[in-house]
Amino acid sequence: QEPLTASMLAAAPLKEQKQLLGERLYPLIQMLHPVVAGKITGMLLEIDNSELLHMLESPESLHAKVEEAVAVLQAHQAKE
Amino acid sequence: KPFVPNVHAAEFVPSFLPKG
Hints:
The complex is a heterodimer of chains A (80) and B (20). With 80 residues, chain A is mostly helical. Chain A is built from five helices and no strands. At the A-B interface, helix 2, helix 3 and helix 5 of A face loops of B.
């Protein structure tokens, strides 16, 4: 699969851009946290598209955001 | 903009996953 570029993303209708980004993020997140991959992907998709594109190219920044989201989700679930 | 994880964000469902 070739990398998702900003121009590819811009060519898609706005509504589909999040889905396109999600489709690329989901497998990467699933490798780290299979059980909550859908939820964590949804949480990350609230980040701006340009930053999400950068995260797809930089595993470190993606890992950092994923771990941040997982920590918040786990704290929330512990409270419930 | 700092990233504030939102636990109420909708769950993402990839189109390549079988439905249900």
